Amino acid sequence: MIERTYTDEITSESDGIATTIAGHVHELRDIGGLIFVILRDRKGLLQVVFKEDDDPALFEQATELNYEDIVKIRGTAAATEQAHRGVELVPDKLTLLSGAHTPLPMDVAKDTDANLGTRLDKRYVDVRAPETRAVFALRSTLLTAMREWFVAKDFEEVDTPALSAAGAEGGADLFPVVYYDREAFLSQSPQLYKQMLVAAGFDRLFEVGHAFRAEDFATSRHVSEISMFDVELGYIESHHDVMDVQEESLRYTLERVVDDAASELDLLDVELIVPTDDFPRISFEEAQTILREEYDHRPDDQTDLDTRGEKLLGKYFAERGHPAIFVVGYPDEKFYYRQDVPGDAIASRKFDLLYRGQELSSGGQREHDLDRLTKTMEQQGVDPADFEFYLDAFRYGVPPHGGYGLGIDRLVQQVADLDNIKEAILFPRDPDRLTP
Ligand code: AMO
Questions:
Q1: CA distance 378 to 386
Q2: Local confidence band at 217 (pLDDT 50, 70, 90 cut-offs)
Q3: Closest Cα to atom 10, ligand 1: which residue?
Q4: CATH of the domain at 240
Q5: Are residues 189 and 44 in the same domain?
Q6: Which ligand 1 atom lies nearest to the CA of residue 224?
Q7: Do residues 139 and 282 share a domain?
């Protein structure tokens, strides 16, 4: 390894210490006889000042530098009030490790000025910008925290296949792939496998994986490849047990982000409010009543909330101190949710979590009775024969169970307050984008 110190370890208290730093030339200012280089590494920025009078040969070398060149600089730390962080480096050796072509596709120091298309085309340059990099540091903190909650609560992490014989979420949105001599599909969701694993005795499980949706969309909250945090648990009494898990894990995750990603939130200029009260759990009918009576909004689809409806509900509950709510009991749900349960006042035990006016997850109690499951499939025009590999698991004993799938990209979008979900993904996929 090249021996070096990260810039964040060099502070005004490092005054007089000889050190070597390495990274990109973030900013470059030549003011005649003096060249200021701001070097950027993974941890931050540090100013380096080349003075012609002190070392003409080294100064000459610095005049050749370009933005984003990768350099190694040896020098001595000097405390100074002139520099942004109260310290700078007085260099004595400069090594160019790799040159950057000019012109650059965007100004990295002010990357958000470029349009999103250009930014995504040149993502490896775009993520160099500290504000963009902060999104991914925050994302990593968030995922680590969420995983930690589940591990601490005795959930097991599992891996289910990305290649499957049938889609769990509906036929039209599948990506077909050639699988030897037959057709297979990229997984839309680990749904069926989560349930088969509960049947197998994994009664507290989670999976962090990718799901693929061949949806034709042009929105700021959809992508074709999603990162999903999936959860399933057995021996539940109702969907409320599942909502409890989701509520506690999300609250913990957000608290950890506030503590552990404070500098990233600061850089992104976000004040993250963690919901402290219980998340309201309102029925689908109550949601529709609020939309109708408060906002005169009547979604066309009587079985779902539309984007505007979700936004309005988000506004309504935010004004009452609740950034997160559950909407429970959607009608006409997918075959794997329990629906029309005798005694229930709601149409199904399916819920969505809305956070700041956007759907973050779907979940619920599952149908674990084989006869009812098969009947619902038939009613919905789904051929049980295509799902025999799944249905067979229900013949050998399945405890009552439920779970949810949370869109990680949407959560990061909301937490980092990004306009477009693609900003929350390193290399997003959409109908027009398969590279880089
Ligand atoms: P659902 O299809 O609602 O449920 O997906 C769960 C969550 O995944 C996210 N999501 C998406 N994010 C970005 N782009 C998309 N195209 C996209 N599609 C979905 C959303 C959504 O809430 N099997 C069920 C979950 C379960 O019941 O356990 C499922 O996949 O945040």
A1: 12
A2: confident
A3: 407
A4: 3.30.930.10
A5: no
A6: 16
A7: yes
| 3-state SS assignment for residue 319 | coil
Give the end of a domain, one of 98, 118, 153: 98
pLDDT 10s digits, 239-249: 999 999 999 99
Tell how far the Cα of 31 is from the centroid of ligand 1, in angstroms.
Answer: 54
**What are the φ and ψ backbone dihedral angles of 266, each rounded to 5 degrees?**
-60, -50
Ligand 1 pocket, 317 CB below 6 A?
no
- pLDDT of 384 higher than 70: yes
> What pLDDT shows up at residue 112?
59
pTM above 0.85, yes or no: yes
Helix then strand then coil, in percent of the chain rounded to 5, is 35, 25, 40
Which pair of structure tokens corresponds to residue 56?
A: 């003409």
How remote is the CA of residue 281 from the centroid of ligand 1, in Å? 19
> Does residue 109 lie within any of the structural domains?
no
| Pairing, β 324-328 against β 281-283 | parallel
Using the mean position of ligand 1's atoms as its centre, give its distance from the Cα of residue 3 in Å: 45
What CA–CA distances, in Å, run from 274 to 134, 248, 255, 367, 397?
19, 11, 6, 33, 40
Measure the CA–CA gap between 261 and 258, rounded to whole angstroms: 6
The tokens describing 290, both together, are 């609020």
364 CA: nearest ligand 1 atom? 27
Q: What are 139-183's pLDDT values in tens digits?
A: 999 999 999 999 999 999 999 999 998 887 876 799 999 999 999
Q: Answer yes or no: is the C-beta of 223 below 6 A from any ligand 1 atom.
A: yes
Q: What is the pLDDT of residue 171?
A: 67
